[in-house]
Design brief:
Radius of gyration: 13 Å
Number of helices: 4
Strand order of the largest sheet: 2-1-3-4-5
Strand content: 15-25%
Length: 117
């Protein structure tokens, strides 16, 4: 997530999606939330996300501005791809939430080139 530090503001609300159970990666999440970024991770979804309707509803109602996909299973990539720009879910990638009354679209945020190397 550090690659996106300049693109996020303190008032942004980030949903972190990982295909792993959180237990072993809690240190990484703490670093992302408290040390490396001024933006806290508002919620973490480990493993199964649930139906696409639930994810869309949560993104709209809970006011998320961004979704960070750390890892996603092949099943999740197939099930949720329609929400993503070009119907493609990339791992270790930040997406901006664009929601209207009808649907939610997740648009890839370009990362800092110097931090990507």
């Amino acid at each position: 997530m550090r690659k996106y530090e300049r693109q996020l503001k303190k008032e942004d609300k980030v949903l972190y999606i990982t295909n792993r159970e959180v237990g072993n990666s809690i240190i990484q999440l703490a670093l992302n939330q408290y040390i490396m970024l001024p933006v806290p991770i508002s919620a973490v979804i480990p493993g199964t996300i649930g139906p696409i309707e639930n994810l869309e509803k949560s993104l709209k109602e809970d006011g998320y501005t961004h979704v960070f996909v750390y890892q996603a299973s092949n099943e999740a990539k197939q099930e949720y791809s329609s929400m993503f720009e070009e119907n493609l879910i990339k791992e270790d990638t930040l997406y901006e939430v664009k929601a209207n009354e009808e649907k939610v679209k997740l648009i890839e945020v370009k990362k800092d080139k110097e931090l990507d190397e």
